[in-house]
Amino acid sequence: MTTYDDRASLTDLTTTVERVRRSVEGVIEGKPEVVRMSLTVLLAEGHLLIEDVPGVGKTMLAKALARSIDCSVRRIQFTPDLLPSDITGVSVYDQQRGEFEFKPGAVFAQIVIGDEINRASPKTQSALLESMEEHQVSMDGHTYELPSPFMVVATQNPVEMEGTYPLPEAQRDRFMARVSIGYPSPEAELQMLDVHGGVSPLDDLQPVAHAHEILKLIDAVRAVHVAEAVRRYAVDLVAATRRHPDLRLGASPRATLHLLRAAKASAALAGREYALPDDVQQLAVAVLAHRLLPTAQAQLNRRTAEQVVLDILQRTPVPQAGSPAGRTAPPAYRQPPAGRGY
After folding, report:
1. Does the first or last residue of the chain, that is N or C, have fewer Cβ atoms within 10 Å of its Cβ?
2. Phi-psi sector, 97: left (phi>0), alpha (psi -120 to 50), beta
3. Distance from C-alpha of 233 to C-alpha of 328, rounded to nearest angstrom
4. CA dist 160 → 52, 53, 163, 171 (Å)
5. Strand, coil or helix: what is 275?
6. What is the pTM of this model?
7. 32-43 and 253-269 are packed helices; what angle lies between their axes, rounded to 10 degrees?
């Protein structure tokens, strides 16, 4: 088991993340919960899908997160004529040396922004599958490792379907979480006009964290303790999606892993070295809903995947701290602070 100084690691994490959070929130007005989810996915080594109507700041959020960290960033504008080789790279024959030379594509960056990802063909979308899951690209019998940390932040418009290709199940399953920014409040929109009316908020945005700092924070998140009861709770939630009558496709085992990793990152962001059922509950909709396929009858009844996840959360028993008959809790379970319901 990895040992480390919990207090020092969490102090470094919260300090660094606070700098990044303030930087991103200076661009995205009035959406602290969306910014926090983006940072949670980053520290959990996942990928983020931002789905919302045009003009609410999907690409702005992705750019602000990327610019707040001093690392390599590449943006891919997904279009119908985009080729898989534009993403992964291509081998070019060098006549002078008499051999092929690999030219890396746009995916060879630490943060990859995929703008309007559903406008590319399924063939082009599939070029991201290996890199998102295994952090590598295989080309002509060779394997090329991607830099660390590696995160794909993709955007798509759920309303305008002309000239778009729905993301296949395998692609959606590789995104750890899906978020929607939503319209700002009138106060936030008015502040946006005052502050950003004349210049782009990204122009003055400077990096506030380095890539090597993010790697250390990711290591700290990996060491967050998750009790057996919390792990079982995550498994029970995911298993419930596979037998729910309103779903024809439930969540995969990868979803369980993503939910657990996100819960550990959420706990670390809260300054805790252990995860609680609260962390799992708060992340369940964002992590699970985009992977689920409602039945035809559920769609006719206008039952969304988000509603199904909320229903499962209400029906699934929540683990309790402590043990029956007044016995003390086992050493593996970290007790939450006083006042919490677990």
Report:
1. N
2. alpha
3. 20
4. 10, 8, 8, 20
5. coil
6. 0.86
7. 110
